[in-house]
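INFO batch 0412 | record 1 of 1 | parsing
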Amino acid sequence: MAQVSTSIFEWDGKDMALLQRAKRSELQSAGVSNPSDSAVAKAITKAELTRHCHRKTRETENCVRLLENMFLALPDATDTLGVPLLRDDALDIWGTEKRHVTCLQAPEGVQLYTKTRELLKGYVTLPVYRCAHGSTSLESFDNHLNNFILRDGSE
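INFO prediction complete | emitting tokens
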């Protein structure tokens, strides 16, 4: 399901660059003289991403392409017990159901994030955001995929 989420959403580039700069500054303050990009990326937590970065839905065509690539890469994939991850008819179902990806797009012109305050991290001031968009549409899409495409082990 993490791959599904990554196929649908992306982090805002400007927000990510600012958070990376802040995390680098924080690591340097903690005594890491020249943290690598990899070390900075590993030090950023999911909570920090959520707190300081906007997340947006990818364009429909890109989202569909990424999801299709994911399905095509998984035809023989199994869970730890050897149960296939995809149903036998998953690609056929996806062919008719992919039209619903457009329903996941954020409404045009609607501000989904509100800046609630600012926070100093290292020597960089970061915005703290609250998202007005719940995860209901993604959860519904995940459930839909799970019920109709992905095996859940109950068959």
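INFO post-check: The first strand starts at residue 9 and ends at 11.
INFO record closed
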